[in-house]
Here is the input.
Amino acid sequence: MNVAEIIDGHPGDAVALADPARTMTYGELRAETAAARGALLERGVAPGDRVALAIGNTWEFPVVFLAVVGVGAIAVPLNPDSPGPERARQTDAVGATALLEAVPAGTRSAPVAARADGDLACMLFTAGTAGTPRAAMLTHGNLLANQAQMQAHPGRALVAGDVTLGAIPMFHIYGLNVVLLLTLRAGGAVALVPHFDPRAPLPPGVTVVPGVPAMWRDWLATHAEGMFPPLRLALSGAAALGADVAAAWRARGVAVHEGYGLTEAGPTVTSSAGDAPAKDGSIGVPLPGVEVRLVGADGEDVLAGDPGEVWVRGPNVFAGYWGDPTPALTPEGWLRTGDIAVADGDGWLYLVDRAKDVINVSGFKVFPAEVEEALAEHPAVAAAAVVGAPHSHSGETVAAFVVATAPLTAEELTAFCAARLARYKCPTSVTFVDALPFGMAGKVLRRSLRATWGT
Here is the structure.
């Protein structure tokens, strides 16, 4: 089945999408997507081609995404706010044949191309567990399987009457599959928010709010008691919510359910939604059809209460990284996440650590090497190292340590990076040092730098 077929079968007059500029029914969505498929074919787009999308959270993104996968091509969503050099690196990395920033205009409609479960549907850039950001390959089967897994989890399923807040960027797998595609599969409506503003009231009729911890914190600060509408389902993912935030929302009558996932798993692995009361600090239990192991350094499963690396297996687990011949999974099909968790006696999971070097900024992963490479391009930078620093709003922020060969300011370096990297990847703290700490193996001792913040 082609992912593009999830919009079929719903009533033509039911609302599918709404943004500040337009409300679109399922009938209109199907018609405009069919026309966009025809336009892509007229441009010569063929099955297997990589087509980049740089479109924000407007009605145009779903139309373009569904049209690209609908003709059998591979969608590569990019951050529309990224500077030109970063976009160029990403499109070059996947050999994109086109970059779309709006719905393509054409003169005919075209049917959906048949796709097998193993055919690639999209690729999203992620830091992975090592190296600079790579394009994670997700198949039609991966996306559809994770949607089915979420729908099968007790208390987690969406229904046709739901209106889901679409504030999470759709170039992120959370916004793409958990928010947009899952809602469309269920026949609900997505209330698209092009630019998140915590002070703005939620769109009318919203029943499901997927968010990240920074959003839930912002809403606490800007929405007085009683201002937030009653919700059927409140979700948080991409980073730890924090017991204080969860408790504050619970006091307001809103149970925010945490979950855990990663791009390579399509993304959702666990959820705390369900009939049983959620446990503070827990990411819940695995979704139906998702296998999870906690593995110790000896390669064996750990006992309850002992920390182990999270391993994931299931039809939702990705097909590897584009252009990387190294196997992404173990021979038995397990994805090693690099995240550390413990399980209690009831099987509820608690994250206790992450892959040490990847920085998590409001749910967006930043790999230090990419930022360090950008800093090194400055003629006055002799060496640079980047680590994550605690941040009350975004969970973590990017902190840089720089050895300079000429007078230089933090503001100059931040502006230099902003011309090369997405804003969330740019350092918010720059410390100038005489030298970086190195270990015996010649690697920068990031733990020494992280100790600056006690992490």
Remarks:
- The first helix runs from residue 26 to 42.
- The chain has a mean pLDDT of 91.
- Residues 359-453 form a domain with the GMP Synthetase; Chain A, domain 3 fold (CATH 3.30.300.30).
